[in-house]
Amino acid sequence: MAIVSDWNPYRVSGIERSVSEYAADMVVSAAGAYVAAGVLFAVAFVTRGVSRIDHVARHGTPGFRLIILPGTVALWPLLAARWLRSRS
Description:
The protein has helices at residues 19-53, 62-74, 76-87; strands spanning 11-12, 15-16. It is elongated. A two-stranded antiparallel sheet has the order 1-2. It is mainly α. The longest helix has 35 residues, at 19-53. The relative contact order is 0.11. Helix 1 runs antiparallel to helix 2 and helix 1 (19-53) packs parallel to helix 3 (76-87). It contains three helices and two strands; from the N terminus they run ββααα. A hairpin with a 2-residue loop joins strand 1 (11-12) and strand 2. The protein has a domain at 34-88.
């Protein structure tokens, strides 16, 4: 007697999903994780890291720091690498 499994990776809550819907869900999840990591990094970078990379930014106003916040979220891997290189 064969054991029949009803498990399907594309079935969520009893609703059948196509492979493209599953792939789209994975892309959206990855983008969300990237943005979440970017927000966490941006808070630390805007408060402390920007002054290590750019000495002119050391005297930046709070308005300046708010302006660079979205760019920091988007480009956080590049800025993280640059911040790490400036520490050594």
